[in-house]
Design a protein that fits this description.
The structure holds two protein chains of two kinds.
Chain A: E1 3-5, E2 10-14, E3 19-21, E4 24-26, E5 32-38, E6 44-50, E7 56-58, E8 64-68, E9 73-78, E10 87-94, E11 101-103, E12 107-112
Parallel strand pairs in A: 2-12
Antiparallel strand pairs in A: 1-4, 3-9, 5-6, 5-10, 7-8, 8-9, 10-11, 10-12
Chain B: E1 4-7, E2 10-13, E3 19-25, E4 32-38, E5 44-51, E6 57-58, E7 67-73, E8 76-81, E9 90-96, E10 105-106, E11 110-114
Parallel strand pairs in B: 2-11
Antiparallel strand pairs in B: 1-3, 3-8, 4-5, 4-9, 5-6, 7-8, 9-10, 9-11
Classes of the chains: A mainly beta, B mainly beta.
């Protein structure tokens, strides 16, 4: 069965500092990997996704993620965070097609001035 | 881009009543939609997969008689919480994948409070 681990429940970063959110997955085949962001009381917005090809994926809002098969990881990065980046971030894995997604437990990001 | 509209965004109902939540794909057709439940400060738990024109597929532990799913058209799936109780209070989110796309689009969620 597929699974996703986000080891960090809560991360606090100063505005302007760099950010890395960790995600490890377990999946038997080549995974479809996603990062979503959720603001309080809102739905999920797709930041970026990986299916194949270049292992460094660029997303919206200046985010990027790198797929590392050897480490079963798909960490999310941003070189300089903004106060508006404060939210909950979810990593997810799926099989593609119309298969369901399995989500990690999320990482709450707090930005301090 | 692909948009999934979910309605209502918030609903408060009395214990014992039923509540219907709608999930619409506005600019694409979706043969499959997914319903998730999110507890406070928790991740999303898949409840069921809604299939157009056929029965929904429920995840283990989800009561299909309590959470009725109907996917009568290619753009609409509904989740009805029947005989709601306070423990059904939660945030419900639907999602769908446009044909040919690799990403899933999520609705904005419905906050259900049962009093």
């Amino acid at each position: 069965a597929q699974s996703v681990t986000q080891p960090d429940i809560h991360i606090t970063v100063s505005e302007g500092a760099s950010l890395e959110l960790r995600c490890n997955y377990s999946y038997g085949a080549t995974p479809y990997l996603f990062w979503y962001v959720q603001s309080p009381g809102q739905g999920l917005q797709l930041l970026l996704k990986y299916f194949s090809g270049d292992t460094l994926v660029q997303g919206i809002k200046g985010f990027e993620a790198e797929f590392k098969r050897s480490q079963s990881s798909f960490n999310l990065r941003k070189p300089s965070v903004h106060w508006s980046d404060a939210a909950e971030y979810f990593c997810a894995v799926g099989a593609g097609g119309n298969e369901k997604l399995t989500f990690g437990t999320g990482t709450r990001l707090t930005i301090i001035p | 881009g692909a948009v999934v509209s979910q309605h209502p965004s918030r609903v408060i109902c009395k214990s014992g009543t039923s509540v219907k939540i709608e999930c619409r794909s506005l600019d694409f057709q979706a043969t499959t939609m997914f319903w998730y439940r999110q507890f406070p400060k928790k991740s999303l738990m898949l409840m069921a997969t809604s299939n157009e024109g056929s029965k929904a597929t429920y995840e283990q532990g989800v009561e299909k008689d309590k959470f009725l799913i109907n996917h009568a058209s290619l753009t609409l799936s509904t989740l009805t919480v029947t005989s709601a109780h306070p423990e059904d209070s939660s945030f419900y989110i639907c999602s769908a994948r446009p044909t040919g796309a690799h990403g899933y689009t999520f609705g904005s969620g419905t906050r259900l409070t049962v009093v």
